[in-house]
Design a protein that fits this description.
three-stranded antiparallel sheet
Length: 280
Amino acid sequence: MQVITTCAEMSAACRATPRPIGLVPTMGALHEGHLSLTRQARADNVTMAASIFVNPTQFGANEDFSTYPRSFERDLELLAAQGADLVFAPPPSEVYPDGFDTWIEPGAVAEGMEGAARPGHFRGVATVVAKLFTITRPDRAYFGQKDGQQVAVIRKMNDDLNLGVHVVTMPTIREPDGLALSSRNAYLTPEQRAAAPVVYRALQAAESQWQAGERNASLLQAAARSILQSEPQLSAIDYVSIVDANTMAPVEAADDAQRVMLATAVRLGSVRLIDNVVLA
């Protein structure tokens, strides 16, 4: 396994390696959700590449960039065990050198939910993923459904800019009690961790109504909110949204032919958790 820290060396390594190449972009602090992506990338491709880069441009001024979990040596051990061939782990100055001033500005797909709650977040995501795609030129790139809006932003960017990468979305990986795996789960206190599965229970409550035939978005959102509001550890509900799973446009009355996603973001103290389920 090669660990590479410069854009030029990573580009050269990817040009020289056998194809197809599967890329798993990560910010490190790897967990089973990430590893599910690496296993699929390993199975689908001759060469498996991963990146470890805590991207500063997708963090807001009051967010957790400086304290974001980092476990670089452990991450390398996990990637080696998964059969990674190439690991791209650049410093921020390599990705954003002095004078860097070109950005990808996502459109409507990035406006609601996370885009509204975290201004500039998806500009940072889209820009760094575009750079990773152009540096590595992968045939496939792997992302988790937990970040459903992020996947939609990346798919739209990939299509609009003709980047030619097959974007593969993998299912959300959960703890036995339903909590979606996230590097930020490490921030939860024991009391918050005990309460955190309420997020998935809320999504399941609305999903059960959907399966029973309910298509009114307001009623489905209310079902999820009522579960969330019953948990005293929750300090805020940022949103409960029902959207088109491809465009992220709000849905009021779902069409059974439409891919529909129910998404939520909540806060337990200073910890912000996001989750979603695709209803259809």
